[in-house]
Amino acid sequence: MKANAVFYSILASCLLVQLISGCSVGPQMLQGVYLSYNDRVRATADEELLLNMVRLRYLATIEFLSINSISAQASFNVSLGAEIAPSDTDSTLVIPELQYSDRPTFSFSPQRGTQFAKRLVEPIKIDTLAYLAASDWPIKILLQLLVKEINGIVNESHGDIESFYKIADNLGDLQKKHKLLFAFTEYQKPVSAPIDKNLLKASDLISAAKAGYTFIPDTEGVHLRLSEPTPQPIMLLRTTAPEERDILKQLGVTKTGDEPIELRAGSKRGFHSSTYSNIHLRTRSVLGAIVYLTQGVTPPQSHIDRNLTFSSWPFPGPDNDKIDQVFRVKASKPRPQARLAVQYRGYWFYIDETDLTSKSTFLVFSEIYRLALVGSDRSQAPLLTLPLGGP
Predict the structure, then answer these.
(1) What does the pLDDT look like over 114-141, one tens digit per residue?
(2) What is the pTM of this model?
(3) Helix (H) or strand (E) holding 253
(4) Rounded CA separation 200/220 (Å)
(5) 3-state secondary structure of 40
(6) Which letter does DSSP use for residue 266 in this model?
(7) What are the residue boundaries of the structural domains of the chain, listed by start?
């Protein structure tokens, strides 16, 4: 019996060692660990964004952290231990032992400094909005979330929110019917003063072309100006006459639907009374969009009664009684059954799983946030180091 016990013990140990050494632990570990960290980083970023909205609702300062690196260190230890059999035998069984440990290390840093602050408060570029719309992101949400004014119609409490929302709804319907197209055309933007064409040599033209520039003549053909190709976002309507006239009338645009309508930055109020040749947009900043969405956070009434927060936005700007049509965050004392929820001042603030409008708005804004703040600085991207080898 003793010989049999020893034989089976050795056999089990050999099989275990062979199994561990030949089962490609590294690739399997990479698949599981990588996806787990990916999901956790995404969820944490969403929770941070929602928490900052809730903080602003309570007039508290906000903070953004950047994950600089993630180092996941895993180790396996295989050892042979001994266990004495019951007293009615004198056999000794050798038992293999397998130990696994995971010691992740995270490196964080606050996102601060001049460059981050500038990207946080500067207006979102029209190109960014157009690229998202051209990629079939919902134009209705993009307008409500990012645009403060379109052709003199202001999306704030002192403006005409109802008319603005009607325009956003109509453009959204046209987009769903594939009758609204966002694209880019290219024009030559002068970047130099006029140059006498007789002073230019062939080598100058070649050098400019290699650098991506060109020379364009003026109206008289006497001077040339160095120019660079610049993308210009445009909107095209592919629709029937009644729909076309209605949306163009709402926008005050004098062009017909088959002409490209350029999207330009800035306000034209005071310069044009009621007609426009293109669409002029005044956009929010990322911080402005966060403040706008903050209006959708509904705190518990007990906090309002105790003056822990306000019933309406206390500063000039985005107080919007129609924000429920765009975004809503609820509060609950017990933890809700929601994918996205954060705890603050004894309550859970969350987005209802059945509220598809709020979930869509948050999804769009989270991508805008990454494009405007995180995506523009490659050094902000976290370095993820994962173990690849087996034991």
Answers:
(1) 777 788 888 998 988 999 999 889 999 9
(2) 0.71
(3) none
(4) 17
(5) helix
(6) S
(7) 114-185+231-379
